[in-house]
Design goal:
Elements (H helix, E strand, L loop, with lengths): L7 H16 L24 H8 L8 H19 L7 E10 L14 H5 L1 E4 L5 E4 L3 E4 L8 H9 L3 E18 L5 E6 L4 H7 L13 E4 L2 E5 H9 L14 E4 L9 H9 L4 E2 L7
Parallel strand pairs: 5-9, 6-10
Antiparallel strand pairs: 1-2, 1-5, 3-4, 5-6, 7-8, 7-9
Helix pairs in contact: 1-6, 1-7, 2-3
Length: 281
């Protein structure tokens, strides 16, 4: 895995380059970007109470609109039942606290290093579980992203006395086109949209930032004025209801080396990167 901390210079780079490159001038705060109309059931960080409230909405009438409403409610029920985590998702974990001392400490697992072993990025397994050092297997079935931190705190408390647990679920997105390092990146849900481009090294000289767009399964979900406003307002992935697998596409000047064949050859040669924000905790 690759850890790319966000430094203050990157923040300045993102705010200046993207605000000016995308919109020329910062958009007024009085005109916030709208969320995608087809954003689905709820935000990534929605609480169980808010999802339950949404699930109680009456279903729409027959027709395309009603079908979309029923599909959205079905997605909410699935989240409430199965949770938010799927195999291959990533969880960033930092644990602080005093380890519980076992009656017979084992030399292979020094009790004073438990927190360090638990502070890392972990992958959700095929049964929607996390396998943590010392702790063992923790099921995430039925756990929402909003519940992750208190849930893991409770689980880790069996091995660490009064643990202080910081946990974030990371969302897998791809950044392609005229950027320095196209590839797949895992970002926290509360990361700003511009952090996706910063993680990819920023746009190249040939980037056409006015044509930047976000796609989902080949369909454009954010572009143009709406996307410019989202960038200038500092909107997060969660606020814009992005999902795992969404793709940021930065077109380049025609005739340069950003055609589909070269892009995919480059993209497939780059490992997945974990982009952890130093400002998170």
């Amino acid at each position: 895995m690759i850890h790319l901390p966000l430094r203050p210079c990157c923040l300045r780079f993102a705010s200046v380059t993207f605000a000016l490159g995308l919109s020329g001038l910062a958009a007024p705060r009085a005109a916030p970007a709208q969320q995608p109309a087809d954003s689905g059931s709820a935000t990534l960080q929605a609480t169980r109470a808010s999802l339950e409230q949404l699930a109680r909405r009456p279903e729409g009438p027959s027709g395309a609109g009603g079908a979309a409403s029923r599909s959205s409610i079905a997605m909410i029920h699935a989240r409430l039942s199965d949770g938010d985590f799927r195999p291959g998702d990533r969880v960033w974990l930092v644990v602080e606290g005093e380890p519980q001392l076992p009656d017979r400490p084992e030399p292979a697992q020094p009790p004073r290093t438990i927190e360090r072993q638990l502070s890392d990025t972990f992958t959700v397994g095929p049964a929607r579980e996390l396998t943590l050092p010392v702790i063992g297997v923790i099921s995430l079935r039925g756990v929402l992203r909003a519940e992750l931190e208190p849930y893991l705190t409770q689980q880790i408390a069996s091995s660490v006395k009064d643990p202080v647990v910081h946990a974030k679920s990371l969302i897998r997105v791809s950044v392609s086109g005229a950027v320095a390092k196209p590839g797949f990146y895992f970002l926290p849900a509360d990361a700003a949209l511009s952090d996706a481009l910063t993680a990819a090294g920023g746009p190249t000289q040939d980037a056409k930032l006015d044509k930047l767009r976000v796609e989902r399964s080949g369909r454009r979900i954010l572009q143009g004025k709406e996307l410019r406003l989202a960038f200038s307002d500092g909107r997060t992935l969660d606020e814009m209801r992005l999902q795992a697998g969404d793709q940021f596409i930065v077109p380049g000047v025609p005739g340069h080396a950003y055609d589909d064949v070269r892009f995919w050859a480059t993209l497939l040669s780059i490992p997945v990167a974990i982009y952890v924000l130093s400002k998170a905790f």
